[in-house]
């Protein structure tokens, strides 16, 4: 017996265990002669709680309601308790969804074709081509006005031949035991979920974001205590941002935009100065390079530069003629970058492949430049020495 259909407010109840068994996947389940535990179904998650002090981990829907429990119970007569915080949260979210869907249909003729109640937020998929901020504000005012009217929410079973008497928002998916959730004068929907007895208990509905999903619009929203918690952390962060920007909370976006624009200008200036410094640095490396048979060899190990920075510096150096650059960066792993000027015929990829095994690494590139990395940090100096010896004794002699 699915007692949650008749009363969503029951938190504790007595029942008899009809059967205990272990499923093929190892989960232990019990079947009760009647239950207020809601199983996962219709987009709404299951209840949690305890049966005879044993934790209920999941509730499965089917011909029977299976209560997945933490371990064996043994006794036949049991006291059950539902996690009320979780249950009431689901009641708020589900009823809020009914109101939101009804308002979208009434105001924008948008049908709800998808619903999911998650642990953090709820989503509905709507048959809308677009959704704007102004449209969202209009919907939010309409929904919350209905909440403040504290309209009754009723649930009842109706015979199939009486369905035509109701202005249903959607058709039922079952032929018998059709349960209708009615928000008086606003919404009539076939639904097997749990709901509060009035719209006032929903508290508030707040749309958080929306996005295009194929041909529909997915709307993410929260209700009740979730909305309060969402407001609390956002309000705290807005106040902290406003304090740091020395402005009022409702001026924080303007303050952020100002600081962002200033930071963007500073990044440009820093980038320009960095380029100039790197150009001077490239000239210094070129001037101080070792000369082997007329070819300058630049060799350096860095501890504060990544591959991108090494390549940018190397590119500035090899603008000169007759120059080879062997760069490496040492961190948790080793990165190496070999490059040469256009006028040389040295194949840097061949050179890299010949020595990269010394650092237990891999890499690749082309005749002009090659990059790689490896894990043997202690062998980095051996790799550079081997590379220099190959250049000196074989390639550039």
Features:
single chain, alpha+beta, Elongation Factor Tu (Ef-tu), domain 3, Threonyl-tRNA Synthetase, Chain A, domain 2, elongated
Give a description of the structure.
By secondary structure, this protein is α+β, with helices and mostly antiparallel strands. The protein folds into 3 domains: 3-82, Elongation Factor Tu (Ef-tu), domain 3, CATH 2.40.30; 87-232, Threonyl-tRNA Synthetase, Chain A, domain 2; 289-395, Diaminopimelate Epimerase, Chain A, domain 1 (Roll), CATH 3.10.310.40. The chain is 34% helix and 29% strand. The protein has 7 helices and 19 strands. The strands form 4 sheets. It has a 6-stranded antiparallel barrel with strand order 1-2-5-4-3-6. A hairpin with a 3-residue loop joins strand 18 and strand 19. Helix 1 packs across helix 2 (133-148), helix 4 (252-287) crosses helix 5 (307-317) and helix 6 crosses helix 7 (380-395). The longest helix has 36 residues, at 252-287. The chain is elongated and about 100 Å long. It starts with 11 loop residues before the first strand and ends with a helix. The mean pLDDT is 93.
